[in-house]
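The authors assume throughout that readers already know how a fold can be written as discrete tokens. For illustration, here is how one protein appears when written out as sequence plus structure tokens.
>
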Amino acid sequence: MFDLAFHGAGLGTTLLGLIVLGALLVEIVSAGVGRLSWDFLTSLPSRRAEDAGIYAALLGTVWVISATAVLAVPVGVGTAIYLEEYGTRDRWFRLIEINIANLAGVPSIIYGLLGLGLFVRALAMGRSVLAGAATLALLVLPVVILASREALRAVSPSLREASYALGATRWQTIWHQVLPAALPGILTGTMLALSRAIGETAPLITIGALTYVPFAPDGIWSPFTVLPIQVFNWVSRPQEAFVENAAAGIMVLLALLLAMNGTAAWLRDRYQR
């Protein structure tokens, strides 16, 4: 009886969440669909709502997320391989495991403060794309490590044993057998981590990302803004036209997120086959 009541409450909460999410999506689409156009996607920000575009923020998002993936994925997957395939189960190993799990739950604003002190000031990166990407890489790195470890752990031990029996070394076994088998899970975890990073605002504002950038970034040392910051800037203005711009910006952000997840799903299915 208790289990039925518990599952019923969980189902009701899920349905309520879906209804609220659907209502929000309907409101966003109805407010922003009329503003979406090619000019909106290719125009730079403006003080006038009817002339404002999202090109600088869109390109900044692509730059930051791409650099975040380049920084976080190799380090995260490499760390997971070391911990899962080479690590010894001693006291220090357990301490590292606990710290990685704890870092996954640290508020994002803390990573912003760390990025401000380490990348912007100590390493003199300034308020650049690289500083923002490095900060977000620290934010998503624990998630990438944990997801990659789970994917590696799910690979059957018999696959490793068969490879060793045929004379392969440990690294040959990992590279040619374990990683291809774990790749779908690693891709799924990586996309979840990057999906979190693409919607972050607080860490980037903390390190000094601009809310108004009348130019598109052209490299990793350029100042930048991203779509969530641009949407935040527009929402904070009293004019109704800027609220419509914000709704259109949210739709662009959702489309970019769906494109990323769709690509990850396609790659995952391909490697699973």
